[in-house]
């Protein structure tokens, strides 16, 4: 299968988000840039800062840029990597804070659990205590952050109340050390509106999805080709699936299966052949079957699996999932990536 990535679309999306949000942005490029290819994407995109999930991703980004790199889920075993490559851990667990101190990490951000109940400190008291521990251990606290669980304004306002109290508690503890708090306060940009923040983290929107306040361009197109064309008679089945033809039709075997990111739950959804749609009828490991009434199809014909017209949001609905999972799902060893821009 062939994955085409429009790097200019990502750059334009980031530019539009920066204009709309009016503040510096952390460009999230974790999970291989949401399946788009971290090395090529980071080389093409100039951002105020970059965000990754793991230290290993951070090392890749550091080989390309000297901009700040935030690690959202640092692990205590990699504290030395954090220090060596000048990564900035977003510390939300006591064990990670202790490892950072032991490894002589110089700076960090504190992560607040304001409602996601994932990573982070949940109360002002917890935040003040971890701030004191970090400062006593020689780790500078340069920022504080949280992650919204929903774009619903009511949910966001509720989380902001928790977050604001935690920010105040950390600032107070920094002052108690005789220091001037210069915290960078940042939140996820999908739910813009926190006037108190200094920076937004933007992820899915950079790749063309998940934002309703700026127009976005889809950056990824996925296509394949027909391997074989055969007539299918009424009553005949395809592959391992329960599909049974209700009438005579044409069946085509297309390169790429669930080992390549085509989920078995996509049976029934459309793909494009030229301007016409065909239906996925069965999915195997290395190929999938489509049915159509077109008589002009031949092996080698291009099949569009994902595009602007049949995008990750549409595919996600057919699977009962979210666009994030669709995008990263195509990032497999057999994928053939090409880049524009």
Task: Provide a compact summary of the structure.
By secondary structure, the protein is of the alpha/beta class. It contains 10 helices and 16 strands. Helix 8 (153-176) links the parallel strand 7 and strand 8 (184-188).
How would you describe this structure in keywords?
single chain, 341 residues, alpha/beta, TIM Barrel, Lyase, Ornithine Decarboxylase, Chain A, domain 1, 2 domains, 8-stranded mixed β-sheet, 8-stranded parallel beta barrel, 26% strand, elongated
What does this structure look like?
It is a single chain. The chain folds into 2 domains: 2-207, TIM Barrel (Alpha-Beta Barrel), CATH 3.20.20.10; 220-340, Lyase, Ornithine Decarboxylase, Chain A, domain 1, CATH 2.40.37. Helix 7 packs parallel to helix 8 and helix 9 (312-319) crosses helix 10 (323-329). The mean pLDDT is 95. Strands 1, 10, 11, 12, 13, 14, 15 and 16 form an 8-stranded mixed beta sheet that branches. The chain has an 8-stranded parallel beta barrel with strand order 2-3-4-5-6-7-8-9, surrounded by 5 helices. With 341 residues, it is α/β, with parallel strands linked by helices. The longest helix has 24 residues, at 153-176. It has 10 helices and 16 strands. A hairpin with a 2-residue loop joins strand 12 (270-273) and strand 13.
Q: What is the overall shape?
A: elongated
Would you state the CATH class of the largest domain? Answer: Alpha Beta
Query: In what range is the share of β-strand residues?
Result: 25-35%
Instruction: Please tally the β strands and state the result.
Output: 16
């Amino acid at each position: 299968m062939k994955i085409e990535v429009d790097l200019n679309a990502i750059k334009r999306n980031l530019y539009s988000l920066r204009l709309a949000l009016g503040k510096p942005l952390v460009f999230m490029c974790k999970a291989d840039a949401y399946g788009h290819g971290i090395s090529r994407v980071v080389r093409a995109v100039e951002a105020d800062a970059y965000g990754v999930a793991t230290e290993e991703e951070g090392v890749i980004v550091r080989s390309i840029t000297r901009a700040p790199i935030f690690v959202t889920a640092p692990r205590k075993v990699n504290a030395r990597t954090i220090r060596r490559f000048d990564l900035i851990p977003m510390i939300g667990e006591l064990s990670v804070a202790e490892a950072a101190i032991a490894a002589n990490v110089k700076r960090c951000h504190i992560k607040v659990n304001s409602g996601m109940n994932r990573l982070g400190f949940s109360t002002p008291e917890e935040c003040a205590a971890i701030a004191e521990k970090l400062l006593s251990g020689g780790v500078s606290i340069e920022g504080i952050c949280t992650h919204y669980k929903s774009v619903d304004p009511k949910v966001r306002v509720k989380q902001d109340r928790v977050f604001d109290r935690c920010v105040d508690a950390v600032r107070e503890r920094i002052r108690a050390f005789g220091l001037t708090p210069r915290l960078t306060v940042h939140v996820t940009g999908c739910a813009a509106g926190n006037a108190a923040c200094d920076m937004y983290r933007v992820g899915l929107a950079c790749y063309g999805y998940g934002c309703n306040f700026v127009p976005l361009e889809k950056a990824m197109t996925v296509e394949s080709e027909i391997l074989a064309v055969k007539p299918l008679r009424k009553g005949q089945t395809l592959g391992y699936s329960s599909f049974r033809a209700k009438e005579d039709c044409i069946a085509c075997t297309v390169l790429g299966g669930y080992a390549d990111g085509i989920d078995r739950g996509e049976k029934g959804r459309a793909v494009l052949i030229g301007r016409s749609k065909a239906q996925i009828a069965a999915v195997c490991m290395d190929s999938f079957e489509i049915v159509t009434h077109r008589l002009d199809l031949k092996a080698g014909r291009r099949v569009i699996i994902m595009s602007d017209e049949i995008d990750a949001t549409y595919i996600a609905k057919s699977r009962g999932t979210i666009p994030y999972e669709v995008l990263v799902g195509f990032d497999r060893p057999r994928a053939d990536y090409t880049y524009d821009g």
